[in-house]
Amino acid sequence: MAHNPPLRLLYLTNSRLPGEKAHAIQIMHTCAALAALVQVRLVHARRVNRAWLRGTVDLRAHYALPRDVPRRALPSLDLMPLVQWLPAGRPGGYALAFALQNLTYHIALLLWLLFASADVYYTRDSLSAALCLVLRRRRVYFEAHTFPASAAGLGLQRWLAKRLDGLAVLTPVLRERYIALGCAPQKVHVIPDAVDLQLFAPRAQAAARAHTALPAADFIALYAGQMYAWKGVETLVAAAQLLPAGCCVVLVGGTPEDLPRLQVLAHGADPQRLRFAGHVAPTEVPHFLAAADVLVLPNSGLTEISRNHTSPLKMFEYMAAQRAIVASDLPALRTVLVPEENALLVPPDDAPALAAAILRLQADAPLRQRLSAAAAITVAQHTWDNRARRILKLVSGDVA
What we know:
The protein is an alpha/beta fold. Helices cover 41% and strands 16% of the residues. The protein has 17 helices and 13 strands. It has a seven-stranded parallel sheet with strand order 3-2-1-4-5-6-7, sandwiched between helices. A six-stranded parallel sheet has the order 10-9-8-11-12-13, with helices on both faces.
């Protein structure tokens, strides 16, 4: 009996791997899940890595992947690390360095694609998608995580919208906007992010606190992730200063560029009520989540990406860890979180409301248990394996 050969899928990304940001985790887990179903090859940029990641060579172990992902790193001119040494003009320096890196990577990708072939080309980079279309590659799919704000970005996306074979987006609002831009509705499908349920399975709190050196007796509200302004961590820092003794806010993550901003904001705060854990390896994050009583997702409502575009990995990780969640009441988060059912939702950018919700959960253990149990049921469908199946339905044209 003849067997059809496995589908060959190229995942193209101008990303630093390993990377310190959530998109690196998302890319690696998406590709690892796809690799169980099809023949995947991840093509990414060779870039100068952050100092604490330069010794990382085993990405499967670093990201706790279920299987290896074949990769090809393409050269690019990465001058980003040099910009920090400029005496002035760093914003312009970063813009120029990124433009050079992006251009040289895509030149390398162009040359590589001339001799490569696949059944499906999948990317979250609009320029990579455009390059595949210019080269007349068939079955080109784009995964959109934002909506362009500039005239040039809108023009490129409008050109892509009429030519892509399909588009995956993270939220319903993104779907509506790409359809309005000219993408055929049947080609645009909402595929949110996901989580490894086994990696983030519930753990004993006492053991997790010993492992992370967090205070054994405090009531801990914890945030894990990047510290960009739109993540709303400033609101959590302000809320921490409204909490009573014995209630502690822990911030996990951030880069050397972001942490100083928050540390200045927290100057004078009681160090017993606000702790910075800094960057930790992805495999350490589950221990920190397990150490918490409450997990906080304080996204700001002041930016479009936060209100309508994001599908935060941490939201699914929080749910899988089975700790009560307090989150900002935003459309993007309401696609998964239901107020008073699997999370408490509060007005964004409102420190007193955030502090009040944390104190409400501190005083009500049954409510914490009810919310976390409901979240565990909700998140069961949001696995990387299920996400991979939805992507394959999209690229096969079999999405209802």
